[in-house]
Write a sequence for this structure.
């Protein structure tokens, strides 16, 4: 008698096969990419005698968590194709169909496992990835690119908005020709300050030769104050409260990939408050949130092109099309990401749009193969 109910035994079996195959594929891909990365680091280290083999190994190892996050969708795609094609060749899927179990019931556990893997990598591995990637960038710039801390703490032609710290209740906009970080102090030269009122109208303008920022207070020297309806005023010293900190500049210089899912909201808020562009950070944040959906999409894509019974022919062609479709989806994700970084697309549709569209197309393909 046909049995059409959900089988927990079958779900555990298929889920275990899927997770094992995906993890092995992820391990193989990560090892391959890390090997090429290690070879490239060795080539670059050859021009720097002070950079030894241990440093190269450390940088390569610090890159591993980032690579895991980056290639997880590929691993799920290839692992799913391998898993489902093996189930099809062994006729296990034929037996499940004969029992009245649909392809959707078979895919419940792999889809849940893919969602869980995406969530674990996005929420759990991203803090480790952000720390290790940031540390790798620091070591790379110091030893392999020759950018020492003195150069890394200097900023030129910098625009900063200090929101709500003006005596008039409006924002203050700074244009700093040269800003140098010295411990917890910030030393600026050739500073232009625009003070706005609550209506965002220019209240006055200051031209400053140099200034020192510490403990939330600018100590400005040789200040020329220009106000509408008042003659110019020149002061040797001027004190101006400010919310700009060394942490603001530190977060501004960090690439979005070096920040975890949990750190990104605070960084976005801090940078928005200071007037810096937050598009790359919001895009990376939405991309991490969308990773579980992208993992499910890759699972359904792999199933749609590899669950055909072996006797129907064209298996190799279908597997090739499945791999090509997965890579095409990844290319669309990258194109949408670049459109998002350029401002042509808002971060939310740029991150979620390709994954959502791919999920709908993969579901339509499965419906066609199942019911068509």
């Amino acid at each position: 008698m046909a049995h059409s109910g959900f089988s927990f035994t079958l779900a555990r079996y298929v889920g275990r096969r899927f997770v094992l195959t995906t993890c092995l594929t992820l391990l193989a891909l990560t090892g391959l990419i890390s090997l090429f990365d290690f070879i490239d680091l060795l080539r670059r280290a050859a021009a720097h005698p002070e950079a030894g083999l241990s440093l190269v190994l450390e940088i390569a190892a610090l890159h591993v968590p980032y690579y895991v996050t980056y290639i997880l969708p590929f691993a799920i795609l290839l692992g799913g194709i391998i898993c489902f094609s093996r189930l099809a060749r062994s006729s296990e899927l034929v037996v499940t169909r004969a029992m009245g179990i649909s392809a959707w019931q078979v895919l419940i556990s792999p889809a849940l496992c893919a969602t869980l893997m995406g969530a674990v990598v996005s929420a759990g591995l991203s803090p480790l990835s952000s720390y290790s990637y940031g540390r790798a960038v620091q070591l790379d710039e110091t030893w392999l690119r020759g950018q020492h801390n003195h150069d890394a703490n200097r900023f030129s032609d910098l625009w900063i908005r200090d929101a709500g710290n003006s005596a008039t209740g409006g924002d203050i906009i700074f244009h700093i020709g040269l800003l140098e970080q010295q411990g917890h102090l910030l030393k600026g030269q050739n500073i232009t300050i625009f003070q706005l009122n609550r209506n965002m109208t220019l209240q006055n303008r200051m031209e400053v030769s140099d200034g020192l920022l510490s403990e939330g207070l600018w100590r400005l020297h040789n200040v020329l104050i220009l106000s509408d309806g008042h003659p110019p005023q020149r002061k040797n010293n001027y004190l101006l409260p400010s919310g700009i900190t060394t942490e603001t500049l530190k977060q501004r210089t960090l690439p979005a990939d070096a920040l975890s899912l949990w750190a990104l909201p605070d960084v976005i808020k801090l940078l928005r408050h200071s007037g810096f562009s937050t598009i790359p950070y919001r895009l990376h944040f939405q991309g991490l949130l969308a990773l579980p959906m992208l993992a499910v999409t890759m699972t359904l894509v792999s199933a749609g092109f590899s669950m055909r019974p072996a006797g129907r022919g064209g298996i190799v062609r279908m597997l090739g099309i499945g791999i090509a479709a997965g890579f095409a989806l990844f290319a669309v994700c990258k194109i949408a990401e670049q459109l998002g970084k350029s401002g042509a697309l808002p971060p939310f549709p740029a991150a979620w749009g390709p994954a959502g569209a791919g999920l709908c197309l993969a579901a339509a393909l499965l419906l066609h193969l199942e019911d068509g």
Summary: Residues 103-144 form the longest helix (42 residues). The radius of gyration is 28 Å. The beta strands are 154-162, 169-182, 185-197, 202-214, 217-227, 233-241.
